[in-house]
Design goal:
CATH superfamily: NAD(P)-binding Rossmann-like Domain
CATH class: Alpha Beta
Strand order of the largest sheet: 3-2-1-4-5-6-7
Strand content: 5-15%
Helix content: 40-55%
Oligomer: single chain
C-alpha cells in the first residue's frame, strides 16, 4: 500500500507519515523544506520493520510541482492508495482589513488550491482502480469564525465542503474522502497563532491541546476502511470513532458532522 503525505516534513504530517511507515505502508512525504523532509526520512530509517519512505520537495499550490510529486511517487513506490492533504499555513493573523491581500490569498492557495491540485492528480488513478482514500486535514476553524484568523478559517471551511463534494462525486468509484479535525496540536503553526488568536492560547492554558499521535490514530482508523460508510463526514481526534461507525445510519439520517446551515 502506498501513501502520499503532504506537509510531511514536521509536525502532524511527520507523525502521521512515520505511523503509516511503521504499519508497513510505503510513504512519500512532500513539503517545501528539503532539510525537514530529510530529517523525517532519517527517523523512519532508524526504525525496524518499516515501509519504504521517499521525500519530494514540492510546493503543493504549484500545478507543475503537484503533478511531478505524484508522478515521482508512483514511479518509485507505485499507485497511490491513500492521499493525505496535510500541508497548510495559518495565513495572516490580523483583522481582515489589516491583511495584505496577497498574503490572504496565498493562504487559500496553499490550504485549498493545494489539496485540490493533489486530488486532481491522484483521483484519475484511483477511479481507474475503483478504490482509494483521501484525507483532507481541516480544522475546527472551518466551522467557527475566529477573530484574527479569517484567512485560515475561510480556507478550512472551503476544504470541508470540497471534501464533501468530492466524496459525493467519487462514491460510485469506491473512493472515500474524509475531512478531519486534529484539534489544537502544539505545532509551529499553533505557536505562531497563540500570539494573536485568543482562543488558541485559551485552549493551551486549559490543557485542551491534543497530541499529534491522536491524528495518527485517526488516520490509521480511516485508512483501514472501517469508516468508509461515512465518506464525506468530518472526523475529529477527540471522537469515539467506533461509536460513530456503529451509529452511521443515525449520522446520515440527521446529517451530522457536515458543513451546513440550520434553519427555523
Amino acid at each position: 500500500m502506498v501513501a502520499l503525505v503532504t506537509g510531511g516534513g514536521r509536525g502532524i504530517g511527520r507523525v502521521v507519515a512515520l505511523r503509516l511507515a511503521s504499519n508497513g505502508w510505503d510513504v512519500a512525504i512532500a513539503a517545501r523544506s528539503e532539510n525537514e523532509l530529510k530529517e523525517t526520512v532519517v527517523l523512519a530509517s532508524k526504525e525496524a520493520k518499516r515501509g519504504r519512505m521517499i521525500s519530494v520537495a514540492a510546493d503543493v499550490a504549484d500545478p507543475a510541482a503537484a503533478g511531478e510529486m505524484v508522478r515521482r511517487t508512483e514511479t518509485e513506490l507505485g499507485p497511490i492508495d491513500l492521499l493525505i492533504n496535510n500541508a497548510g499555513v495559518t495565513g495572516p493573523l490580523a483583522p481582515f482589513w489589516e491583511n495584505d491581500p496577497g498574503d490572504w490569498w496565498r493562504c487559500q492557495e496553499i490550504n485549498l488550491r493545494g489539496p485540490m491540485l493533489c486530488c486532481r492528480e491522484v483521483v484519475p488513478g484511483m477511479m481507474a482502480r475503483e478504490g482509494g482514500r483521501i484525507i483532507n486535514v481541516s480544522s475546527g476553524a472551518g466551522i467557527l469564525a475566529i477573530a484574527n484568523m479569517g484567512a485560515y478559517a475561510v480556507s478550512k471551511a472551503a476544504l470541508i465542503r470540497f471534501s464533501e463534494q468530492l466524496a459525493l462525486e467519487l462514491a460510485a468509484y469506491k473512493i472515500a474522502v474524509f475531512p478531519i479535525r486534529p484539534g489544537v496540536v502544539r505545532t509551529r503553526m499553533v505557536e505562531q497563532a497563540r500570539q494573536r488568536v485568543r482562543i488558541v492560547q485559551q485552549f493551551l492554558d486549559e490543557g485542551r491541546d491534543v497530541p499529534p499521535e491522536a491524528t495518527a490514530d485517526m488516520v490509521e482508523f480511516l485508512a483501514s476502511g472501517r469508516a468508509d460508510a461515512l465518506s464525506g463526514y468530518t472526523f475529529s481526534a477527540d471522537q469515539n470513532w467506533e461509536e460513530l461507525i456503529r451509529r452511521a445510519e443515525d449520522v446520515r439520517r440527521n446529517k451530522l458532522y457536515l458543513l451546513r446551515m440550520d434553519e427555523l
